[in-house]
Specification:
The protein has helices at 4-8, 36-46, 53-66, 175-181, 198-205, 218-223, and strands spanning 74-79, 89-93, 98-103, 131-141, 144-151, 166-167, 210-214. By secondary structure, the protein is an alpha+beta fold. It has a single domain (33-223), classed as L,D-transpeptidase catalytic domain-like, CATH 2.40.440.10. The radius of gyration is 16 Å and the shape is globular. It holds the Pfam family YkuD_2. This is L,D-transpeptidase catalytic domain. It comes from Algoriphagus boritolerans DSM 17298 = JCM 18970. InterPro entries: YkuD_2 (IPR032676).
Length: 229
Protein backbone atom coordinates (compact mmCIF):
# COMPACT_ATOMS: atom_id res chain seq x y z
CA UNK A 1 0.00 0.00 0.00
CA UNK A 2 1.37 3.43 -0.95
CA UNK A 3 1.24 5.94 1.88
CA UNK A 4 -0.24 9.43 1.61
CA UNK A 5 3.19 10.91 2.23
CA UNK A 6 4.64 9.14 -0.77
CA UNK A 7 1.71 10.19 -2.94
CA UNK A 8 2.13 13.84 -1.92
CA UNK A 9 5.82 13.67 -2.70
CA UNK A 10 5.05 12.88 -6.34
CA UNK A 11 4.46 16.56 -7.21
CA UNK A 12 7.26 18.90 -8.36
CA UNK A 13 8.66 20.56 -11.48
CA UNK A 14 11.52 18.52 -12.93
CA UNK A 15 13.35 20.14 -15.81
CA UNK A 16 15.61 17.36 -17.11
CA UNK A 17 15.83 17.61 -20.89
CA UNK A 18 19.02 15.65 -21.59
CA UNK A 19 19.73 12.19 -20.16
CA UNK A 20 23.46 12.84 -20.47
CA UNK A 21 23.45 16.00 -18.33
CA UNK A 22 25.92 15.88 -15.45
CA UNK A 23 23.25 16.91 -12.94
CA UNK A 24 21.11 13.83 -13.56
CA UNK A 25 20.56 12.03 -10.25
CA UNK A 26 21.87 8.46 -10.19
CA UNK A 27 20.20 6.26 -7.59
CA UNK A 28 21.71 3.20 -5.99
CA UNK A 29 19.70 0.11 -6.98
CA UNK A 30 17.79 -1.43 -4.09
CA UNK A 31 18.62 -4.98 -3.16
CA UNK A 32 14.98 -6.06 -3.00
CA UNK A 33 12.81 -7.00 -5.98
CA UNK A 34 11.49 -4.35 -8.33
CA UNK A 35 7.92 -4.40 -7.04
CA UNK A 36 5.64 -1.47 -7.99
CA UNK A 37 5.39 -0.41 -4.35
CA UNK A 38 9.16 -0.29 -3.89
CA UNK A 39 9.74 1.62 -7.11
CA UNK A 40 6.98 4.12 -6.33
CA UNK A 41 8.39 4.69 -2.87
CA UNK A 42 11.96 5.11 -4.14
CA UNK A 43 10.98 7.59 -6.85
CA UNK A 44 8.74 9.49 -4.46
CA UNK A 45 11.56 9.86 -1.95
CA UNK A 46 14.13 11.02 -4.49
CA UNK A 47 12.13 13.18 -6.91
CA UNK A 48 9.58 15.94 -6.47
CA UNK A 49 7.98 15.46 -9.88
CA UNK A 50 7.03 12.06 -11.25
CA UNK A 51 3.96 10.88 -13.16
CA UNK A 52 0.89 11.03 -10.94
CA UNK A 53 0.25 8.07 -8.68
CA UNK A 54 -2.36 6.43 -10.90
CA UNK A 55 -0.33 6.68 -14.10
CA UNK A 56 2.86 5.40 -12.53
CA UNK A 57 1.15 2.65 -10.58
CA UNK A 58 -0.61 1.33 -13.70
CA UNK A 59 2.65 1.59 -15.66
CA UNK A 60 4.49 -0.45 -13.05
CA UNK A 61 1.75 -3.09 -12.98
CA UNK A 62 2.35 -3.59 -16.70
CA UNK A 63 6.10 -3.56 -16.16
CA UNK A 64 5.73 -6.42 -13.67
CA UNK A 65 4.06 -8.49 -16.40
CA UNK A 66 6.17 -7.45 -19.39
CA UNK A 67 9.52 -6.21 -18.11
CA UNK A 68 11.32 -9.54 -18.13
CA UNK A 69 10.69 -9.89 -21.87
CA UNK A 70 12.29 -6.53 -22.71
CA UNK A 71 15.84 -5.77 -23.77
CA UNK A 72 16.14 -2.60 -21.69
CA UNK A 73 15.12 -1.79 -18.09
CA UNK A 74 13.51 1.44 -19.28
CA UNK A 75 9.88 2.48 -18.82
CA UNK A 76 8.54 5.53 -20.64
CA UNK A 77 5.35 6.95 -19.13
CA UNK A 78 3.12 9.48 -20.90
CA UNK A 79 0.40 10.95 -18.69
CA UNK A 80 -2.33 12.34 -20.92
CA UNK A 81 -4.41 13.43 -17.92
CA UNK A 82 -2.13 16.48 -17.82
CA UNK A 83 -2.46 19.46 -20.20
CA UNK A 84 -0.12 19.53 -23.19
CA UNK A 85 1.69 22.55 -21.78
CA UNK A 86 3.11 20.40 -18.96
CA UNK A 87 6.04 18.00 -19.14
CA UNK A 88 4.03 14.80 -19.21
CA UNK A 89 6.53 12.28 -20.60
CA UNK A 90 9.05 10.57 -18.34
CA UNK A 91 11.76 8.03 -19.14
CA UNK A 92 12.52 5.94 -16.06
CA UNK A 93 15.29 3.43 -15.42
CA UNK A 94 13.30 0.94 -13.39
CA UNK A 95 16.28 -0.96 -12.00
CA UNK A 96 18.12 2.14 -10.79
CA UNK A 97 15.00 4.10 -9.77
CA UNK A 98 16.27 6.96 -11.88
CA UNK A 99 14.32 9.50 -13.93
CA UNK A 100 16.43 9.97 -17.05
CA UNK A 101 14.33 12.53 -18.87
CA UNK A 102 11.15 14.61 -18.68
CA UNK A 103 9.51 16.40 -21.62
CA UNK A 104 6.37 17.84 -23.14
CA UNK A 105 4.67 15.57 -25.68
CA UNK A 106 1.85 16.18 -28.15
CA UNK A 107 -1.35 14.16 -28.53
CA UNK A 108 -3.52 13.49 -31.56
CA UNK A 109 -5.54 16.14 -33.40
CA UNK A 110 -8.91 14.55 -32.62
CA UNK A 111 -7.95 13.58 -29.09
CA UNK A 112 -8.46 17.10 -27.78
CA UNK A 113 -6.99 20.58 -27.69
CA UNK A 114 -5.20 21.48 -24.45
CA UNK A 115 -6.42 18.30 -22.75
CA UNK A 116 -6.44 14.78 -24.18
CA UNK A 117 -10.01 13.50 -23.94
CA UNK A 118 -10.74 10.96 -26.69
CA UNK A 119 -8.67 7.93 -27.68
CA UNK A 120 -8.85 5.42 -30.51
CA UNK A 121 -7.16 2.44 -32.14
CA UNK A 122 -8.90 3.09 -35.45
CA UNK A 123 -6.96 4.02 -38.62
CA UNK A 124 -7.53 7.60 -39.82
CA UNK A 125 -9.05 8.57 -36.48
CA UNK A 126 -6.16 10.99 -35.84
CA UNK A 127 -6.50 10.16 -32.17
CA UNK A 128 -3.94 8.96 -29.66
CA UNK A 129 -4.06 5.37 -28.40
CA UNK A 130 -3.69 4.27 -24.78
CA UNK A 131 -1.85 1.38 -23.20
CA UNK A 132 1.45 -0.43 -23.46
CA UNK A 133 3.72 -0.32 -26.46
CA UNK A 134 7.09 -1.87 -27.23
CA UNK A 135 9.60 0.38 -28.94
CA UNK A 136 10.94 -1.00 -32.20
CA UNK A 137 13.24 0.14 -35.00
CA UNK A 138 14.17 3.63 -36.11
CA UNK A 139 13.87 5.08 -39.61
CA UNK A 140 14.09 8.33 -41.54
CA UNK A 141 10.65 9.58 -42.56
CA UNK A 142 8.79 12.77 -43.38
CA UNK A 143 9.37 13.95 -39.82
CA UNK A 144 13.04 12.98 -39.88
CA UNK A 145 14.49 10.51 -37.39
CA UNK A 146 11.56 8.49 -36.02
CA UNK A 147 10.84 5.44 -33.86
CA UNK A 148 8.25 2.80 -34.66
CA UNK A 149 5.99 1.49 -31.91
CA UNK A 150 4.24 -1.87 -31.62
CA UNK A 151 1.03 -1.81 -29.61
CA UNK A 152 0.78 -4.69 -27.15
CA UNK A 153 -2.92 -4.47 -26.32
CA UNK A 154 -5.49 -5.83 -28.75
CA UNK A 155 -8.35 -3.45 -29.37
CA UNK A 156 -6.60 -0.51 -27.74
CA UNK A 157 -3.33 0.03 -29.63
CA UNK A 158 -2.50 -3.02 -31.73
CA UNK A 159 -3.06 -0.97 -34.92
CA UNK A 160 -0.18 1.36 -34.02
CA UNK A 161 2.20 0.10 -36.69
CA UNK A 162 -0.52 0.02 -39.36
CA UNK A 163 -1.50 3.57 -38.38
CA UNK A 164 2.13 4.71 -38.45
CA UNK A 165 1.95 5.80 -34.82
CA UNK A 166 5.58 6.65 -34.11
CA UNK A 167 7.72 8.90 -31.95
CA UNK A 168 9.10 11.82 -33.92
CA UNK A 169 10.08 15.43 -33.54
CA UNK A 170 7.81 18.32 -34.53
CA UNK A 171 8.03 22.10 -34.25
CA UNK A 172 4.47 22.22 -32.90
CA UNK A 173 5.53 20.01 -29.97
CA UNK A 174 7.91 22.55 -28.45
CA UNK A 175 7.47 24.58 -25.28
CA UNK A 176 7.95 27.74 -27.36
CA UNK A 177 4.94 26.80 -29.48
CA UNK A 178 2.89 26.23 -26.32
CA UNK A 179 3.85 29.62 -24.92
CA UNK A 180 2.61 31.37 -28.06
CA UNK A 181 -0.65 29.44 -28.48
CA UNK A 182 -1.59 28.25 -25.01
CA UNK A 183 -1.18 24.59 -25.93
CA UNK A 184 1.03 22.31 -27.99
CA UNK A 185 0.13 21.62 -31.57
CA UNK A 186 -1.37 18.21 -32.31
CA UNK A 187 -0.27 15.23 -34.35
CA UNK A 188 -2.18 12.65 -36.36
CA UNK A 189 -2.01 10.36 -33.34
CA UNK A 190 1.73 10.19 -32.72
CA UNK A 191 3.38 11.13 -29.42
CA UNK A 192 5.41 13.95 -31.01
CA UNK A 193 8.32 15.54 -29.14
CA UNK A 194 10.30 18.79 -29.30
CA UNK A 195 12.67 18.56 -32.29
CA UNK A 196 15.74 19.39 -30.20
CA UNK A 197 14.98 16.47 -27.87
CA UNK A 198 13.37 13.79 -30.03
CA UNK A 199 16.59 12.14 -31.23
CA UNK A 200 17.89 11.85 -27.67
CA UNK A 201 14.68 10.21 -26.52
CA UNK A 202 14.58 7.87 -29.50
CA UNK A 203 18.18 6.74 -29.05
CA UNK A 204 17.54 6.16 -25.36
CA UNK A 205 14.40 4.01 -25.62
CA UNK A 206 14.62 2.37 -29.08
CA UNK A 207 14.91 -1.37 -29.76
CA UNK A 208 12.83 -3.03 -27.11
CA UNK A 209 11.82 -0.88 -24.15
CA UNK A 210 8.34 -0.35 -22.72
CA UNK A 211 6.12 2.69 -23.27
CA UNK A 212 2.87 3.30 -21.38
CA UNK A 213 0.34 5.96 -22.38
CA UNK A 214 -2.22 6.79 -19.69
CA UNK A 215 -5.43 8.76 -20.07
CA UNK A 216 -8.86 9.31 -18.53
CA UNK A 217 -10.61 6.36 -20.12
CA UNK A 218 -12.68 4.04 -17.90
CA UNK A 219 -13.10 1.45 -20.65
CA UNK A 220 -9.35 0.98 -20.98
CA UNK A 221 -8.77 0.81 -17.23
CA UNK A 222 -11.53 -1.78 -16.81
CA UNK A 223 -10.66 -3.92 -19.83
CA UNK A 224 -6.85 -3.93 -19.91
CA UNK A 225 -5.38 -7.00 -18.21
CA UNK A 226 -1.99 -5.34 -18.01
CA UNK A 227 -2.98 -2.58 -15.58
CA UNK A 228 -4.73 -4.89 -13.15
CA UNK A 229 -2.76 -6.04 -10.04
Amino acid sequence: MITTGILISLVWNLTFSNPTQSNAVILTPLESNNSPEEILQSLGEKYKHTPNYEALNYALEGWEKLGKELKKPLLTVIDFTLPSTEKRLWVIDVEKREILLNSVVAHGRNTGELMAKSFSNTPESFQSSLGFFKTAETYQGKHGYSLRLDGLEKGFNDQARARAIVIHGADYASEEFAKSTGRLGRSLGCPALPPDLSSKVIDLIKDGSLLFIYGNDENYLKQSALVQP
